[in-house]
Amino acid sequence: MNLEQILEKTKNIHLVAASKYTDFNTIKKFFDLGITDFGENQVQALSRKKQELDKENLNIKWHFIGNLQSNKINLLIKQKPILWQSCNGLKIAQAVNQRLDYKLDTLLEINSAKEKSKSGIDLNKAIEEYIQIQEECPKLNLCGVMSIGANEEDRNQIIKSFETTFKIYEKLQKYGAKICSMGMSNDFELAIKCGSNMVRLGSILFKN
Question: What positions are modified (N6-(pyridoxal phosphate)lysine) (predicted)?
Answer without folding.
Answer: 20
